[in-house]
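# nightly structure sweep
# worker-07 picked up a monomer target from the shared queue
# config: single-sequence mode, recycle default, output format = structure tokens
# input follows
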Amino acid sequence: MVLPTRSADESTDRVLEGLVLDTTCVVATAKTFKALADQCQDLSTRTRLTQHPSNLPRALCAVLQRTLNDLRQLSSSESSRADDIFLLIQTLRCMGNLSADNNDARAQLLEHGGVASIGSVLGIAEAQSEPLLTRAAFGAALNVALDHAECSKALLAAGALHPHLQVLGTGVPSDVWPIVCMSLDNLCEHDDAAAQFEGHSDYAASVVRTLSLLSRRADGDQLARGAMRTLVWVLCETVEKSAPVRRQLCSPSAVLAIFDLLDFYLSLPKPKEEDDDDSTPAPAPALPNRPIRQSAANRYADAVTQAIVGVSGEDEALAALFSSQPLTSRLVSILTSNEAGSPRADAMAAAAALCLGNLARTDDHCTRLVAEHSAVVTTLIHEWLIPRSVNVRTRHAASGLLKNLCLPPANRPSLAAMGLVAAAAASVKSAVVPIQANCIGILRHLANGSPEPDTVLEMVNVALADALSVVKETDVDAIRCEATRLIATIAKRVYLTEGNRVARDVIDDSVFDLVTPLVRLVMLDGVRHPLLRQESLVALTVLATQPRHVGGILRLLVKENSAPLAKPPTTDAITEVEQNGFAEVLADLITNGADTPFPQAALQAKSLVTQLATSSATESDEGVSVLHTMLIPLLS
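# output follows
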């Protein structure tokens, strides 16, 4: 069939009208639409067909709906059904080709109900079992709705999402996989898709099963691998956006399947086009509770890892996943693998540590993990946390898991005995902020409660100097505050707890300045972090009982000595806060602190001044004068 020119528009419309009205010449109608479908592969042709007042979109919609109704009549003969399927295929081909990159055609098909009819066709049995119809139907769905929100919405409303997932689980030809996956990806970008995923508990599991099936076919099958790439993004984006979908996957079998998928991607050879470029800047550090991104070569593995983190982070997953012997054994096997150092093993270990870190969010799980899997914990400390580990992602994940394991007091002696103090101390000055934050947090947890004297002494020997250096040098507020809390905790353990005489002697015989970082926190961060200010004031009160430190506190009562401490490391501006010294800050707390949301600071400031008044009797520092003239009178 040759496409008519504009002078024959009326004749063309009459032909199309005849096709709509004639219900007997099914094969002839199919051949006409086949010819039109072939010619619509040309952009200028399909543009002409929709720019002039053509009846083609309306005719296609009417014939599609009529043929669909005929197929639903179970009484029709086998030959009649074959003719109807042939017509259906050619009608869908014509609709798909006509609407490719053609919003005018899409709008007309949508107006005449054709888009909804395509959604209905996807759900019939023949669309799942007849390869040519499968290709035509899903191809039409893809072309009609691609980047077109209204058509995507109409397809979703017609129930098109389920047939996409259903056909992926059947034995369709491999060349159809990419079409179905691309169409599914396009539909899932629409806001209405999330509600359908959430309303059908088997949708997310269907995607995981399909990915498992494709991974077995992907070796040497580029089409299957391409389909996997699209489907992985569908899964990962849906998991990221929707908590109900994450909860659908909160089963050991689903998580194990996702780990298998991660292993598949990590085992693939690195594609040529994804070779690392030395000129490409390294990815920025992630927040401590999220995995650090991998290079572009592993972006699919990175997306799958994030899906594992999302699913295992759901509260509903805790009990079922942690108590699963197959999953626990898999995670233990990954973390104790003798392949440590290979990119694949490191990336698998990072995902396993992140997963375990999410599952270790209760005291019971943490204590059981340390008691029942001490070999894994030892490996985490000595293989995955230590700075010589080349994989930053794995070190970050291991540090997060170990920090969680330190939360129950019952675990702390065992973890310290396993060598965690020295391993964490080695990263106190790490340039990777998430690892640095986790390791400082580990040390602070180990110092809390009633640590053994040997643990306190080890902290003083291997961690205190670096913590003091970090507080002085870092421009990251969170790191400065956390390191100061560690210093305050060590000071309290050393000087308040019996049995720490050796650690006390080490500090007293050293040049360690414990006072300055504590005063800096009170002045610089106290208003924003009242709890940390309180902890620092408590530690300063403890230090004020020691002759080794009381002189340093008195010296900082002089405004000229302490005012610079209120200046942020990266700020040159002079502010009103910087004009005050430590004595002025204490005076303000004593005078006005009781009216603040954290009135305990006023009481602690008074305790500090009272202790200084007692300890300064033999001091001649110029700060003594400030103490007696400015602060002591406020106590009455």
